[in-house]
Structures are given as structure tokens and as C-alpha cells.
Amino acid sequence: MPAGGLVPTGVAKERAELYQGRVTLYVVIACIVAAVGGSIFGYDIGISGGVTSMDGFLREFFHSVYISKQHAHENNYCKYDNQGLAAFTSSLYFAGLVASLVASPITRKYGRRTSIICGGFSFLVGATVNAAAQNLAMLLFGRIMLGVGIGFGNQAVPLYLSEMAPTHLRGALNMMFQLATTLGIFTANMVNYGTQKLEPWGWRLSLGLAAIPATLMTVGGCLLPETPNSLIEMGSKERGRKVLERIRGTDKVDAEFEDMVDASELANSIKHPFRNILKKRNRPQLVMAICMPTFQILTGINSILFYAPVLFQSMGFGGNASLYSSAVTGAVLAGSTFISIAAVDRLGRRVLLISGGIQMIICQVIVAIILGVKFGDNQELSKGYSILVVIVICLFVLAFGWSWGPLGWTVPSEIFPLEIRSAGQSITVAVNLLFTFIIAQCFLAMLCHFKFGIFLFFASWITVMTIFVYFFLPETKGVPIEEIIFLWRKHWFWKKIIPEYPQVDDSHNV
């Protein structure tokens, strides 16, 4: 590539119509094994809320919360407002944020598999330490190791799935990550429902069982093939072509292989991808890498999933009833992901995001009205209204499960050209974990001070993000991952910002 020459970012021309191949059993199995990495993320989200509502856990580590929980006349919204308890939940996500930035150069230099293996092993260590914790320091160290595992896993798995999947099924196969996440949440909820009866040590079993998905992720990572894109980027073109032929089920992969080689040549000419992603020509991808994960968390879903048992207990549900209700929401979330898998490559990303957003807004407003009118400081919801709240929250979770849940990961993982793909995914994960950390740390205090207004707070953000998608996100359905760069040049807004042919300077540090 001549220094100072004018070249397009990524591939030089559109040739998607020349792609050949079929969905092979090999690629499906590889994607299923890789997606298990999502289950560690989901298991932790689901397990945390249940554990923090268990008396045995609170007595041992957060005695003041246990005492306030017993006060019959405590403000309903403030029973669990304790920053130490919030730190137990949120410390993992801060560690994951830092780990995701470290994982980016590792994922780029040593491949997607290496990061998957590192993530699984770290999560395995964290699960073991947490199950054996004797003091708060051990508990927090275990959470940090879990966070490192999630940082590496969330960095590598969505990239792996996007690069292995054939173009026409990329959305569905990429959503295997979200499906594994939701199944992890549901499994965790069911585990909590069983272990809360095993006082006072049931919480140890809940935390320790995280070792199972961690082991599957580690072993699976050792057995997986590396992606063709990553092999080519690391200089193994022949191995990359062989893997591509194997996962496509044909040796007629010239067009797709040439796209990967073109993208790899530019990727290897760029020594500082994080500096490169700030360039004007990558502005739309950078905006999406920041906005999509931010909006995903600001739906309020993590607050409901983290603290579902706490939330339902605050509303007057008994311990068993609250865990049962949160298990139901976990089941709904897992089931709704199948809707998205079936529809994403037929209806497209935008339709699902917009329709899901509208349904979530309606549900948040309904819950806020019910709690505002019928739920005071010393009151409990009647049985009828309690059931109605659970139903509406399930409808909210259903909408999230077919829209922002899976697509909040799918869209960012498929929009970056190869030269900044690892850096872009790292930013996506870091932003997701940053806002997850903020919400996890602040939610109990927000619930105490905002009361029912917390649901209106999240509804307002869902309104903003739905409008954002309508105006600024192009449809990526059916577009090869190496040719999505052309979408930005055709979009009514982004084509005004990005130059058609970016300048490559002599330093190759663009």
C-alpha cells in the first residue's frame, strides 16, 4: 500500500454477491461452544441478586443490612441501601472494564481463542475463591477475578461469533452469546431458588457453581478453531483459508477470502488501533461502540436482573415468592432470545430495536404508576397488584430479550473494519461494564431516593435510544462483515461526516 496514497478503509469493493458456502455443522458447533462464554456473564448477573437477599450471606458479610431487613417499618424502598453490598455486586464490573482494555491487544495479537481461554480460567479461579470466602477481602478478590474473566470473554466471544458466521446468518449465530447469557441468568435464578433453603451455607453453593460454565468455556476454548480473519491477520493465510473452506463447506471461497486479506493488509499496517479509531472516518463506528452498550444498560434491565429478589422483597413479596418471581423473569428473558434469533436476519436489526424500545417504555411507565399509586413506605402491594407488576416486568424483559439484549452486543461486533475491530469491541465492552458498574453501585441508593420514579428515569432513556436508532443506525442485515463500511457512506447523516477515501500517511499510524 503506497504511503500517502488514497485507499478505502477495509475492502476496496463490494463483492458480497460472489460469496459462496453453506451453514456447516462445524461452524454451528464452534459457535455454540464459543457462546458458552456468555453463560458466565449471565450466571453472575443472575446469581448476585439472589445471594445478596439470602440471610446467611447477609449475616456473615453485611450484618447491618441483615438487621435493617428485619425492621418491619423500614422504608420499603430503602431496606437494602448499603454501599458495601452494592460494591459486592459492582466490583466485578469495574474489574471487567479494566480487563477488557488489556484483552484488546491480546485478542488482536494472539487470537480470539486465547482471550476465551484466559477468560474462562480467570472466572474459574474467582468462582472457587468466592465459594470458599471467609471474609470480605476474599469475597471481593473473587469478584475481581470473575470480572477479569468477563472482561476477556465479552471482548473475544462476540468477535469470534461474528467472524465465524456466514453473512446471512451472522445475526442469529452471534445471538448465541446472548442466548447463553440469558440461560445463565435463568440457571442462576433456579439455583438461588434451591440454595436459599440451605441455610446458612446455600450462598456458597450458588457462587461456587459458577465454576461449571467457567470450565466449559476454558475447555471449549482449547478445542475451538481460530477464526479465519484472525489467522490471516496473524500472517497464517493458508491456515486461514483452510479454516474458511471448512466452515463454509466449499473450496469456492475466493471472494470472501480476498475481502479478509484486503482487510488484514490494512489492519497490519496500523500499529495503534485505539488511535486509529478516533479518526474522522471511523466516527460512526466509535459513536455506536459508545452509544449501543450505554443504551443497553440504561434500559434498566441489569437493575431488574441484579436486584430482582431484592426488588420484589421491597415490594412486599416473601423470600420464596421473590426468588420465584425473579426465576420467572429469567425464564422469560431466555425464551425471548429465541424470538430474536428467528427474526433478526429476516426483519433486521432496526425493526427489533425500535419495537422492543416502544414496548419497554410502556412497561416501565405502567410499573411506575402502580407503585406510585398503590405502594407507600409502610404498605405492601395487594396480591392482585403484585401479580400485575410481575406480569408487566416480564413483558418488559420479553421486549428487552428480543431487542436491546442481544442486539446491544451483535451490532457493535459486526460494524468495525478488521484494523480496528478488536479495539472497537474493547471500547464496547468497557463502556458496557462501566455503566453496569455505575448502575450496580447506584441502583439501591437510586431506588431509595427516586422510589417509583426510578422506572420513569429508565423509560426516558429508552425513549432517547429508540429515537437514536431510528435516525442514526443503518440496517446491517445481510451485509458481509468486511463490507459494512459501505453502509456509512450511503447513510443520510454519516456520509456527511466520513470521507469516501481516507488518507494513509507515511507513519502508518493513522
From TrEMBL:
Keywords in alphabetical order: Membrane, Sugar transport, Symport, Transmembrane, Transmembrane helix, Transport
A Gene Ontology cellular-component term: membrane
PROSITE patterns per UniProt: MFS, SUGAR_TRANSPORT_1, SUGAR_TRANSPORT_2
Superkingdom of origin organism: Eukaryota
Predominant location category: membrane
GO molecular function per UniProt: monosaccharide transmembrane transporter activity; symporter activity
Record's subcellular location: Membrane
Domain Major facilitator superfamily (MFS) profile: 30-477
Entry annotated with the keyword Protein transport: no
Matches recorded under InterPro entries: MFS_dom, MFS_STP/MST-like_plant, MFS_sugar_transport-like, MFS_trans_sf, STP/PLT_plant, Sugar/inositol_transpt, Sugar_transporter_CS
Bilayer disposition of the protein: Multi-pass membrane protein
Pfam family, one: Sugar_tr
Membrane-crossing segments per the record: 23-43, 85-103, 115-133, 139-161, 173-191, 203-224, 286-310, 322-344, 351-373, 385-405, 426-446, 452-473
Family affiliation: Belongs to the major facilitator superfamily. Sugar transporter (TC 2.A.1.1) family.
PANTHER family linked to this entry: SOLUTE CARRIER FAMILY 2, FACILITATED GLUCOSE TRANSPORTER (PTHR23500), SUGAR TRANSPORT PROTEIN 7 (PTHR23500:SF109)
Protein name: Major facilitator superfamily (MFS) profile domain-containing protein
Lineage: Eukaryota, Viridiplantae, Streptophyta, Embryophyta, Tracheophyta
